[in-house]
Amino acid sequence: MPILPLGRAYTECALRDPDRPAVTVGDTTITRSELESLANRMARSFIDQGATLGDYITIGLPNSPEFFAATLAAWKIGAVPQPVSPRLPKLEREGIVELANSPIVLGAEPGEHPGRVCLPLGWLPDESLDDSPLPDAISPTWKAPTSGGSTGRPKLIIAGDPGVIDTDADPGMGMVRDGVMMVPGPMYHNAPFSYSTKAMVNGNHIITMARFDAEATLVAIQQHRPTWMLLVPTMMLRITRVDDHRGYDTSSLQVVWHMAAPCPPWLKEEWIDWLGGEKIFELYAGTEAQAVTVIRGDQWLAHRGSVGKPIYGEMKVIDAEGNDAPFGEVGEIYMRAPDGRVTYRYVGADAKTTADGWESLGDMGWIDDDGFVFLTDRLGDMILSGGANIYPAEIESAIDEFPHVRSSAVIGLPDEDLGNRIHAIVQLADGFVVTDDELREYLGERLVRYKIPRSFEFVDEPLRDDAGKLRRSQLRADRV
Q: What is the pTM of this model?
């Protein structure tokens, strides 16, 4: 079978149809040949600045043609793309760069990381550099994203597979070759990075934007006619809050994936009703990819709240005493890759592992007697209040259903009587005002009394990033 290095696979796409659009970011579109030329010049610049086979190239760029070119450039020299948020504080980025020992850091001002080449936002390689294809090189691992966790030192999650692709194999996940796909999330997060770059080397036209905007996403779907889209629940919520969102032409969409955070059941039902259950897919896994569950929307309706059955690897639930939990009992979810396959390795951390090789990512949940997995929340996010275990995601789901709420975060704050009291931080749509009592009355129809927040706080700034992630520990620390 034709196994090609990722960089070579993209070269073949560019040679096959050089004028086909490759990447669209907002109003900017770059063709395959233009992206190939930029990536080849970047690759030669990386070599000139000391990068070699197996090095990690830290890419702190916003969604842009340059981000995709830098990723391709790393693969073309056998290096490893290591994406990070362009908004990371210097100190946090320094911790990641030290772990990766990156010779080149894109998105950093010169001198920010002594001993490393720092290329600022807006940097482009010299126009005089050769833009012809480079000799084939294979990256020892195709990606090295950082942990999505919010506490402790950062860690790298090094993928277990090298930088190659079988150009005859089914791309998987409902993707097609030479298609059009919408990925409006930030490319420094694992899912947007993984699916968009793999689709790119399969000849897909990637539609994204510098920063997620719900109405702009609908406009882009109508304009570019993607068949495949990747979202997180925060994006789904914002899209449904667009006036007349059902008036946009979304008929091109055949496959819509959501992942990375729990999706409130009411929100999922809204999307199933809108687009059809056969088009809505949910995936649960970590970046580590030891095991994966998938469920389609029409199947979800028969198993409401589930994230599906494992289609790869194994999952089980372990209780607080370290025993296998019976069906239906909440505990910590553990995963194991099939046949001892190594899907990742950490740099900067150790896995939480049992003696017989099961690993935990810190998620809580339960499995029913048909094998369907249900999530409750992250182990570290659970609030113990008045002796009861309270899962913030359940409360946030109820709050987010309230009209004009854009996002919410529920945390536990120290309380002398209860141990922790439930505190809700709520972002409302511009110009709207809601009282504590209005929210309490609304939640009283949806939640048992002890789960209703004791206090509310209304904020203007977004609580979640464009990938739907919360820094819950930081929110707590700022209020204690």
A: 0.87
CA 130 to CA 190: how far, in whole Å?
Answer: 31
User: What are the backbone dihedrals phi and psi of residue 400, each rounded to the nearest 5 degrees, phi first?
Assistant: -65, -20
3-state SS, residue 5? strand
Q: How far apart, in whole angstroms, are the C-alpha atoms of residue 408 and residue 291?
A: 29
**pLDDT value at residue 153:** 66
Strand partners, 427: 407, 459
Q: Select from 51, 71, 185, 64 the least CA-distant residue to 464.
A: 185
Q: Which residue has the tokens 């009394």?
A: 449
Q: At what angle do helices 6-16 and 190-201 cross, to 10 degrees?
A: 50
Q: Which residues contact 118 (CB under 8 A, 6 or more apart)?
A: 105, 108, 109, 110, 111, 112
Cβ–Cβ under 8 Å, residues 22 and 11: no
**pLDDT, position 275:** 98
Q: What does the alpha-carbon distance between residue 409 and residue 396 come to, in Å, rounded to a whole number?
A: 6
Give residue 20's pLDDT.
98
SS3 228: strand
Report pLDDT for 472: 85
Domains of the chain by start residue, with CATH: 3-255 (3.40.50.12780), 262-379 (2.30.38.10), 382-477 (3.30.300.30)
What is the reported pLDDT for 54?
97
Q: How far is CA 222 from CA 155, 200, 227, 242, in A?
A: 39, 21, 11, 15
pLDDT at 388: 75
The CA R_g of the chain, rounded to the nearest whole Å, is: 23
421, 412 contact by CB (below 8 A): yes
List the chain residues with pLDDT less than 50. Answer: 149-151
> Could you give the CA distance from residue 36 to residue 131 in angstroms, rounded to a whole number?
8
DSSP H or E segment with residue 267: helix 265-275
CB 34 within 8 A of CB 41: no
Q: Give CA separation, 421 vs 383, 442, 455, 472, in Å.
A: 8, 19, 8, 15
The two tokens of residue 61 are 């760029």
E-strand spans in 244-351? 255-258, 280-284, 292-296, 306-312, 314-318, 331-336, 344-347
pLDDT of residue 152: 52
CA 72, CA 420: separation in Å to the nearest integer? Answer: 48
SS3 assignment for 129-189: CCCCCCCCCCCCCCCCCECCCCCCCCCEEEECCCCEEECCCCCCCCCCCCCEEECCCCCCC
- Reported as type and span, the H/E element at residue 14 is helix 6-16
SS3 (DSSP) at 368: coil
Q: How are beta strands 314-318 and 80-83 bridged, if at all?
A: unpaired
